[in-house]
Amino acid sequence: MPIDYHAEKRVFTLSGGECSYGLHITPEGQLMHLYWGRRVPDGAITPHLAQDYPVQASFDLAANCLPWELPTLGQGWYGTPALDIRNAAGDHVLQLRYAGHRIYAGKKPLEGLPAVYAEQEREADSLEIDLQDSLLGLQVTLQYTVLNDSGAVARSMRVCNAGSETVQIMSAAAASVPLWGSDYDVIHLKGAWGRERAVIRTPMGQGEYAVFSRRGASGHEENPFMALCEPSATEHTGGVWAVSYIYSGSFYASAAADVLGNARLSMGMDARVFTWQLRPGEAFQTPEAILVYSHQGLNGMSQIYHRLYRLRLARGWWRDRQRPVLINNWEATYFDFTEDKILSIARQAHALGIELFVLDDGWFGDRNDDHTSLGDWTVNRKKLPGGLSGLAEKIHAMGMLFGLWVEPEMISPDSDLYRAHPDWCLHVAGRERTEARHQLVLDMSRAEVQEYVITAISAVLRESGADYIKWDMNRNMTEYFSPALPPERRMETQHRYMLGLYRVLEAITASFPRVLFESCSGGGGRFDGGMLFYMPQTWTSDNTDAMARLQIQYGTSMVYPACAMGAHVSAVPNHQCGRVTAMQTRCDVAIGGNFGFELDLTALSAEDLDVAKRMVRRVNQLRGLTQTGKFTRLISPEKHEYAAWQFTDEEKSQALLCVYRILSVANTAPIRIRMYHLNPDALYHAEDGRVFSGAELMYQGMTVTLTGDFSSQTILFSQSES
Ligand code: DGJ
Q1: Would you tell me which of 151, 250, 330, 466 could form a disulfide with 360, CB atoms 3.0–4.6 Å apart?
Q2: pLDDT tens, 700-717?
Q3: Angle between helices 583-590 and 546-556 (to 10 degrees)
Q4: Integer angstrom CA distances of residue 314 from 151, 401, 538
Q5: The pTM is what?
Q6: Where in the chain is the domain with CATH 2.60.40.1180?
Q7: How sure is the predictor about 464, in pLDDT bands with cuts at 50, 70 and 90?
Q8: How many angstroms separate the alpha carbon of residue 440 from the centre of ligand 1?
Q9: Which residues pair with 619 in a beta bridge?
Q10: What is the Cα–Cα distance from 524 to 541, expressed in whole angstroms?
Q11: Which of 4, 185, 542, 588 does the annotation list as catalytic?
Q12: What is the CA radius of gyration of the chain?
């Protein structure tokens, strides 16, 4: 049984994949956490764990030591609360007691919020537990879904005010899970523009280790993800407990040790930029967190996330389709282009076998630099005399798809939209409106702004007949206290913005179901599960340098599948790092994501054009494998002079090994690499003619000789009969 309730023991057990999760209702009606970890047989989880806490012998209050499933303030819990409510009397005391539960097959959607889903009832089982504070008339429903294949547990919470007084939610976590002991390493993905999602691994310590975003976007600096792992865990072995948030706004993730030295892993809203007023009769739904446990190390964890996010978070026409090889003109021309220039790049792209042309920033209003015109989504006829439709027709006539860049959530102070609606941006009366990249943020919490964006962007899509949209967002929120809300609700602005954005994305993607949407935020500043629900791929980083990309793609793969990562080959010297790498290496790195080009193809040497053409053919041959195969990290670029990863198909009949030499070292042994997930008894033919048994490749490994800085090799292994 995926979800079992043992009435006598008052124990819930949720089991799926290799994982189980257990809860207990105490005789007093408090909900305690019992277990999260490797799968146990039905009935194996008992309430002992919750009862064994040494609360009697301690100076401390019992409440501060117990493994609460939902810790709250005011009655002896001194840690970070998972739910903090200020009531009409001004205090924060909550006394939540079990009031009932429901178990059902399948999974309900979260209204207005992105979430993983089940296509058929048998894929998932759900549990809702109601907790009640009778004095306030508050009902809190903890929502759990166990995804049966993977054992991932989706967690969220709904708070309903069934009382007669208004209350204020001060903080709300989607998940807050205690773990036994605190001898863990904490892992998170830290970065900045151009160097997103570096893997940080450090001992957890005995305080609170927190990462967060307060920017109104998940951000470049931290990703809404945190994992705890056994200190001995590797990429392939050991226990890992991870949480990823299906949300694109500010967040707070932490690993905290309690007074007894037990850990608690939490993910939720950041209390510094969020409160929510709940009037009688109103309900608040938190976003969803996805809990993943793996006893097969970090790759085991990542592979659960990859499959789930690829198949049951991403949606729509493109979810299961091979993504087109694209050419984007941004690094080729920036704002400075004419239709002729665009067409010359497109013609060259077509000759190479590239399938999609993407016109980036600068096609609308008077936009010749980043000072102007965001919000005025009408074509610049000086640059494109035939309009968007004229250009799209010409691209389509070449046999290519046509794609377009937009930045719908923004407004330039120098725009017709701003002159008409100066109050539509996020602002606070009497304060300066903080500009970044010379632009302001539209107040997406307002219904009329949402309507404007839906209408304007739908018109662009209709006029252009675009097959692809790059949805960019190039600055974070300031003055995020909407004047359209009453003062007591202004702290809701950031979250209301996200709800507004999600409403807009749902409307537009539903109206244009065949369009491929790619999200972007100054590169990878909003690479999260929330955006993946609406758009199956994301621009990974503005840094297109192949060596920098090794790290960025490696870190991003901790949570997100390769088919979610835009990866482009750009010009050398690289525009972000100044580094010169070979065309072959740039292509071999981009093959690890959704492959594309972002350079002036008309300026390439004959030799580079040959490599590019060959690599487009190779991507065509391999993208079934790279976009849907199992991705395994083999050697981290962070600790070595070289790096490697591998894609394997479900049948273990093909595997692509990708090896990269970062810096060359004299007089060292060749690189030896052990592969994973092969059939040990099968024979595999390497492209270079060598034949290996699966066992040899996995247990002994193979050697790769790469000399010279920034060199690379990708080798396809195909299973053969003899
Ligand atoms: C930021 C994106 O990440 C770039 O790829 C490009 O689209 C620019 N914005 C355009 O302004």
Answers
A1: 330
A2: 999 999 989 999 999 999
A3: 10
A4: 18, 22, 11
A5: 0.98
A6: 635-720
A7: very high
A8: 16
A9: none
A10: 5
A11: 542
A12: 26
Q: For atom 9 of ligand 1, which residue has the closest CA?
A: 522
Q: Which residues pair with 661 in a beta bridge?
A: 642, 711
What is the predicted pLDDT for the residue at 54?
60
Q: Among this protein's residues, is 608 annotated catalytic?
A: no
CATH architecture of 3-312: Distorted Sandwich (2.70)
- Could you give the maximum distance between any two Cα atoms of the chain, in Å? 81
- 472 CB near ligand 1 (under 6 Å): yes
Question: Is there a contact between 519 and 529 (Cβ–Cβ < 8 Å)?
Answer: no
Structure tokens at 48: 């002992």
474 lines ligand 1 (CB under 6 A): yes
Please tell me the distance from the alpha carbon of residue 21 to that of residue 670, in angstroms, as a whole number: 45
Q: How far is CA 675 from CA 71, 240, 632, 678, 711, in A?
A: 44, 21, 9, 8, 20
Assign domain 635-720 to its CATH superfamily: Golgi alpha-mannosidase II (2.60.40.1180)
**For 11-66, how does the pLDDT look when each residue is reduced to its tens digit (9 = 90+)?**
999 999 999 999 999 999 999 999 999 999 888 888 876 566 665 556 777 788 88
- Strands 594-598, 326-328: pairing kind: parallel
Give the pair of three-digit tokens for residue 440: 């302001």
Phi, psi of 627 (to 5 degrees): -85, -25
Does the CB atom of residue 525 touch ligand 1 within 6 A? no
Q: CA 294 from chain center: how many Å?
A: 19
- Which residue ranges does the chain devote to CATH 2.70.98.60? 3-312
Contacts of 42 (CB under 8 A, 6+ apart): 1, 4, 13, 15
Distance (Å) from CA 375 to ligand 1 centroid = 16
